[in-house]
Design a protein that fits this description.
alpha+beta, 28 strands, 21% helix
Length: 461
């Protein structure tokens, strides 16, 4: 499973991917071809590979014995190695490193299974991640070493590369652009990384026509990397780093000055991430920044005072207010039979209503529109065709899949008719994201600027 595209602090956005435009030449040159032009042997093996990975994510996996699990893992590694051998050119170069370390990962998974057979189901879709979480690196049979995080990134890249090679090649370049649709005049602020590993960079601004503009934000001395943001009315809030802390900065754009000085909304000991403003703009909701859902509490910041909401709920994503008395959350799964999704609940944690989204996905809340009737979500799924930008009507709970690919932090326009989001095609797991726009009905998709993340649609000034 993909582990947090453009939503984790300090560059948890994976490795640089390869473009499928290059890969296509390497995939269609040997033996009988599939309908997509790729070697039929490769795509047949990919079908087996998907079936085995899906078996590992099914609730029934915990009915297996350790020996039966070992057999499934060994079959998966065997098929992965065969795909790496069949693929030539750049595709083969992309597949071989992961296949080389699969057996080492399998050994750790089986050992964790033997030691914690009862505890692993509680990790839900991420049980394999939990089993490998204490391992910094994997060691192949020949003594070569790979960081476990790199193996996860390459494993996801492998499945996505094969998906656009054997299933839907058209997704390799992203959605068809439609520039006949024109977004309303406005200003979008986005973050451009100077260094992904350290999450350093700067906030820039662009008009919805694609013209560079002056950023309206002036940071206080010592603060850096304003990543996640939210806007309500004239107020904008970001989380940002200050020394070893991760706090919150607030800006009032009502000022007629070209730039607005920040107010420090929070600079305490608890690192807070992905802030969300209440509908009146007076308070900020933010979960604790943590890579463990069990440790991620939700806090409310008001006039520099911070209070935990006291929710007895493990979270895997961000949180947003829906009106005055409800929250939209992404709770971590209790088991594989209870897949991670987004849910609407009261502020007290009762009346939890889950949204019907594809299973085996990492669901991250992007934004709730100011009228509290619609939300935008980003999904990263075991089935790459389900990944991308989704919206949900918070009254009818109807969902729509607008864009397929890697999507980060979608944000509504002030009029609720458009969304801006960070985007990369299905096969790309890299720090190189672009800023895109799309209408709320899925039409008018268009790239706005190359090289950017964490966009936010600014209020009119």
């Amino acid at each position: 499973m993909w582990q947090g595209h453009a939503v984790q602090w300090a560059g948890k956005v994976g490795m640089v991917g390869l473009t499928v435009a290059v890969l296509a030449g390497g995939c269609g040159s040997a033996g009988d071809e599939s309908d997509t032009g790729a070697p039929a042997e490769l795509c047949s093996a990919y079908e087996q590979f998907v079936e085995l990975e899906d078996e590992l994510l099914a609730p029934e996996v915990f009915d297996l014995s350790a020996g039966e699990l070992q057999s499934v893992l060994a079959d998966r590694s065997r098929v992965a190695a065969s795909m790496a051998e069949v693929a030539d050119g750049d595709l083969g170069e992309a597949l071989r490193p992961t296949a080389r370390f699969d057996p080492a990962a399998d050994e750790i998974l089986v050992e964790a299974w033997r030691e914690d057979r009862q505890g692993l189901p509680a990790a839900g879709d991420s049980w394999t991640t939990k089993a490998l979480s204490d391992q910094d690196e994997l060691v192949a049979d020949d003594g070569a070493r790979m960081a476990t995080g790199d193996w996860f990134s390459r494993s996801t890249q492998r499945r996505e590369l094969l998906y656009v090679t054997c299933v839907e090649p058209g997704l390799a370049d992203g959605p068809d652009q439609d520039r006949a649709e024109r977004a309303p005049d406005g200003l979008i602020s986005y973050f451009r990384f100077a260094d992904v590993a350290t999450a350093t960079g700067e906030r820039l601004a662009v008009t919805t026509r694609g013209d560079e503009a002056e950023s309206p934000f002036r940071l206080p001395t010592g603060w850096r990397s304003p990543l996640y943001g939210d806007a309500v009315g004239d107020r904008v809030v970001f989380n940002a780093a200050h020394g070893d802390r991760v706090g919150l900065l607030s800006f009032d754009l009502l000022s007629s000055d070209s730039q607005s000085d920040a107010e420090v909304a929070y600079d305490g000991d608890v690192p807070l991430s992905c802030p969300s403003l209440s509908s009146d703009g007076r308070s900020i909701l933010a979960p604790e920044q943590s890579f463990s859902g069990d440790d991620r509490g939700v806090f409310e910041v008001r006039a520099e005072d911070v209070e935990p909401l006291g929710l007895d709920l493990a979270l895997q994503g961000c949180t947003a207010a829906v009106g005055d008395d409800h929250l939209l959350v992404a709770p971590a799964a209790a088991s594989l039979a209870d897949p991670v999704t987004a849910s609407l609940m009261t502020r007290e944690g009762s009346d939890l209503r889950s949204i019907d989204l594809p299973a085996h996905c990492n669901v991250t809340l992007g934004d709730v529109h100011g009228t509290a009737d619609r939300a935008a979500l980003s999904l990263r799924c075991a089935d790459p065709g389900d990944s991308g930008l989704w919206t949900v009507d918070l009254e009818s709970f109807e969902v729509a899949h607008l864009v397929t690919g890697a999507v980060g932090t979608p944000k509504w326009s002030p009029d609720g008719e458009w969304l801006t989001f960070a985007y990369a095609p299905v096969e790309t797991l890299s720090g190189h994201l672009d800023i895109w726009l799309v209408k709320a009905d899925g039409t008018g998709a268009q790239e706005l600027v190359e090289g950017g993340a964490f966009p936010i649609w600014l209020p009119e000034r």
